[in-house]
């Protein structure tokens, strides 16, 4: 399993040089007034363990395991991925500004693999977003947050107020789309992470739930 995983990441790096992402634009929305200065992704804000069944599709290859996310403090989370048989694959700590690799299986100890996981989980676990503009459509209130050359579009359901999607762009190009299914603001029952410039998709499904 691990050799093809490594090869897939290397293959994807080559392909990215030949692929271009589409410029991201909101459609069917209208400007909305707001007093919000910041909005938050609270799905990983609890101090309890978040335990998910993880399914990762890399091109036509499929990898599954158990993913555990734990909040260590206000800025840092610890992330550990094991195989379905309980063998540790990778263990790291990540925040917006720091990254510490605690363990990685030798077959996964490649710069592209580490950078891929570091960036994806750094974006997923980002909590606070300054609000630059707000919009709305029939189903959602949408907040645009600009940080340097990165932009985030956060979609909050009008029905229950919960965060249901984050679109991450860089230089106006769509990079990653996060979609959430949740019943409460601090815990996502399932999560789908879809790359737009790699043929990589990660799905997380609840195993245990925080209170």
Would you write up a description of this structure?
The chain is mainly beta. Helix content is 14%, strand content 50%. It has 2 helices and 15 strands. The chain has helices at 2-16, 111-124; strands spanning 30-31, 38-40, 50-58, 61-71, 77-83, 88-94, 99-104, 128-130, 133-136, 140-147, 150-157, 163-170, 173-184, 187-195, 200-208. The strands form 2 sheets. A 13-stranded antiparallel β-sheet has the order 1-9-10-11-12-13-14-15-3-4-5-6-7. Strand 4 and strand 5 (77-83) form a beta hairpin. The chain is globular. The mean pLDDT is 88.
Query: Sheet bearing the most strands, described?
Result: 13 strands, antiparallel
CA gyration radius, whole angstroms: 17 Å
In whole angstroms, how far apart are the ends?
35 Å
Tally of separate helices: 2
Query: What ranges have pLDDT less than 50 throughout 5 or more consecutive residues?
Result: none
Placed side by side, the strands forming the largest sheet appear as 1-9-10-11-12-13-14-15-3-4-5-6-7
Helix content: 10-25%
Mean pLDDT comes to 88
Q: Let me know the number of strands.
A: 15
SSE series = HEEEEEEEHEEEEEEEE
Write the layout of secondary structure elements.
Elements: H1 2-16, E1 30-31, E2 38-40, E3 50-58, E4 61-71, E5 77-83, E6 88-94, E7 99-104, H2 111-124, E8 128-130, E9 133-136, E10 140-147, E11 150-157, E12 163-170, E13 173-184, E14 187-195, E15 200-208
Antiparallel strand pairs: 1-9, 2-8, 3-4, 3-15, 4-5, 5-6, 6-7, 9-10, 10-11, 11-12, 12-13, 13-14, 14-15
């Amino acid at each position: 399993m691990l050799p093809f995983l490594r090869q897939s990441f290397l293959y994807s790096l080559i392909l990215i040089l030949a692929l271009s992402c589409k410029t991201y634009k909101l459609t069917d929305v209208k400007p909305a007034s707001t007093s919000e200065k910041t909005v938050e992704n609270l799905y990983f804000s609890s101090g309890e363990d978040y335990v998910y069944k993880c399914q990762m599709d890399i091109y036509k290859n499929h990898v599954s395991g158990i993913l555990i996310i734990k909040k260590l403090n206000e800025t840092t989370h610890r992330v550990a991925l094991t195989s379905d048989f309980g063998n540790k694959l990778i263990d790291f700590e990540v925040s917006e500004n720091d990254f510490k690799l605690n363990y990685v299986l030798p077959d996964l100890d490649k710069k592209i693999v580490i950078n891929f996981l570091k960036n994806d989980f750094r974006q997923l676990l980002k909590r606070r977003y300054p609000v630059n503009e707000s919009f709305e459509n029939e189903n959602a209130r949408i907040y645009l947050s600009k940080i340097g050359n990165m932009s985030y579009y956060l979609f909050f359901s009008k029905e229950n107020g919960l965060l249901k999607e984050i679109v991450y762009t860089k230089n106006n190009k769509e990079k990653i789309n996060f979609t959430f299914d949740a019943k409460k603001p601090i815990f996502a029952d399932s999560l789908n992470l879809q790359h737009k410039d790699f043929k990589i998709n990660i799905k997380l499904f609840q195993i245990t739930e925080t209170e």
